Amino acid sequence: MLKLVPRHVKTASGQQTVWYVKGACQFTGEYFRHSTRCHRKIDAEAVLTAIVDRQRQTAVLGTAAGLSTFSEAVVEYLAKSGEPRFLTALVTEFGETPLRNIEDTDLSNGAAKAYPNAKPSTLVRQWYGPFQSVWNAAARAKMVRERRWTKPTVKKSPIDYPTDDWMEKVIAACTRLEQRAVILFMSFSGLRASEVVKIMHRHFDRENGTIVAHKTKTDARKVSLPPFVHQILLMLPKGRPDSRLFGYASRFSITRILKRSCKRAKVEYFSPHKTGRHAFSARFLADGNSLKALMEAGGWKSVSAVMRYAHLEATTVAAAVAGVSTPLAQLNLGGTLTGTVKRSSS
């Protein structure tokens, strides 16, 4: 019978528990022993439920029944390194439901049941987003046709980001070189925290000051480091090619670093995303670059994805227009309209 077994593993941030599915399935007799990739037991239980549901369907209907269930889709999603967070409520709601029987109203009703009174942003992050990811994995496996599910509209407010003065205080409050390095690199590369922690020593070109980030949301991206960031990365201890450059196994490690450093510096806390991606974008546009250039520098898929930063570009453009240089600025325009316009003696 399938059951969950905890396994304690050592990571750069300390010891963590990873739950494994182990045993023979009571429906098909197939033996399992693989990781759920979950640290919380409640998330691992959702994965186990999905596997059991899939095996039950296989035993009863056979693999050629053409009635792939949501649980089967979840197993496929996790098998392709999908994120297990927030799947518990989805498996509880849709577990053995055939994918082709799920409608928009089912998704809306399930969201209201699982997250009553939740904000649209919460529903998109914890319900509609994970559901769409599972569906996409199933579509790639030819279990169901591709489909874009309608999700709540999230009103995006102007971005919030820390200034370089704030950055200076937080960097000074860090207690280790690795902490300063990871914060600076994140803020001057525009990479997400989850992407930063996956960078290995082999990705860092120590001579030319570049890093190639492979595990991003889009394609691999080559980052050219500002000289001062390059210098601090050179000060990091050298490690094996396949070891993590900054030594952190999880994006949550960066969150903890920022919270503690902000507390010591007695300044407002900004999340890793605001400290990194938002600050990078604001600084990039303040230097006079366009949204299109930002899209390429930050690895966004389209200009529409960076439109939330448009007000920052507009501010930069307005300043450039107001400060444009021209010989006409030297003309004496204070005379009569019919008089001769002369250059100012100054």
DSSP strand tally: 8
Overall structural domain count: 2
Distance between the first and last residues' Cα: 92 Å
Largest sheet: 3 strands, antiparallel
Structural class, judged by helices and strands?
A: alpha+beta
What does this structure look like?
- The chain has 2 domains: 3-140, no CATH class; 164-322, hpI Integrase, Chain A, CATH 1.10.443.10.
- α7 (177-189) crosses α11.
- The chain is 45% helix and 12% strand.
- The protein contains 13 helices and 8 strands.
Keywords:
346 residues; alpha+beta; hpI Integrase, Chain A; 2 domains; three-stranded antiparallel beta sheet; 8 strands; 45% helix; 12% strand
Question: Which helices and strands appear, and what pairs or packs with what?
Answer:
Blueprint lengths: L2 E9 L2 E11 L6 E8 L2 H21 L8 H10 L7 H8 L9 H11 L5 H21 L23 H10 L3 H13 L3 H4 L7 E2 L4 E4 L7 E4 L2 H8 L16 H15 L6 H15 L4 H8 L11 H13 L8 E2 L9 E2 L3
Helix pairs in contact: 1-2, 1-3, 2-5, 6-10, 7-11
Task: Summarize the entry for a quick read.
By secondary structure, the protein is of the alpha+beta class. It is 45% helix and 12% strand. The strands form three sheets. Strands 1-2-3 form a three-stranded antiparallel sheet, covered by helices on one side. The protein has a three-stranded antiparallel sheet with strand order 4-5-6, with no helix packed on it. A two-stranded antiparallel sheet has the order 7-8.
